[in-house]
Amino acid sequence: MPDYRLRPEAEFADLIEDMRDFWTWVGTSLPQLPGVEVDVNNLAIVGESAGGTLTAQTALLGMINPIRVILMQYPALDIESHLKWLESLPEDQKVSEAVLDQHLAGSIPGHIFTRVPNGWRMNLAFSMMHNGRFADMAKQPYLDPMKSLESAPKMPPVFLFHGRQDTLVKVEGSETWAKKLRELQPDVPLHFVIRDGEHSLDEDDRLTTPWLQEPIEFVERFWPHRDGDI
Prior knowledge:
This protein is an alpha/beta fold. About 35% of the residues lie in helices and about 10% in strands. It has helices at about 10-30, 50-60, 80-85, 95-105, 120-130, 145-150, 170-185, 215-220; strands at about 45-50, 65-75, 160-165, 190-195. A 4-stranded parallel β-sheet has the order 1-2-3-4, sandwiched between helices. Strand 1, helix 2 (about 50-60) and strand 2 (about 65-75) form a beta-alpha-beta unit. It is globular, with a radius of gyration of 18 Å.
């Protein structure tokens, strides 16, 4: 996935609009650049964690078409339930709301971030999510992949992967979303893998890692798309 505006300087809805703008640019402007050769009819879209959530939304909200396959690693696909769980944690397990307020008080109005050192903003993210300040899902239900699935166009084939012991994004969200996809769009190919491990459990895996061979075969059924394929 491309870079996008980060919370808390930007709203969650801004992230979705950044995705729309990016895919509009890919579909219209990128192929026109001199020296650039891009096959916009042969897209595989990949994202992990928050990027996996945005990968889902790219397909669910019909930002570009066709998408041959999407690959999501430990994404948040049931954001409403995810936020409720984080808000319900005991107070001694939460990041104080003051962390967020102090950061915002020292921020330059209009200044945004699209990239930061890995992990640098985790306290800010948890301060928002633990204290009900991440997003108002009731007012903007389309921000939640669980809700946007209800009105989604035909989904591309889906590879979904999650760690069973993930303590940052619970595996139950992926399980519930996959079940709903099967109910609403039963013809969509879905390869869902749950393995023992925490968030980012695949960071040391390679294409030759044995468990990945079946998922790779699944993806190769649909991408790259070849002339004559259905």
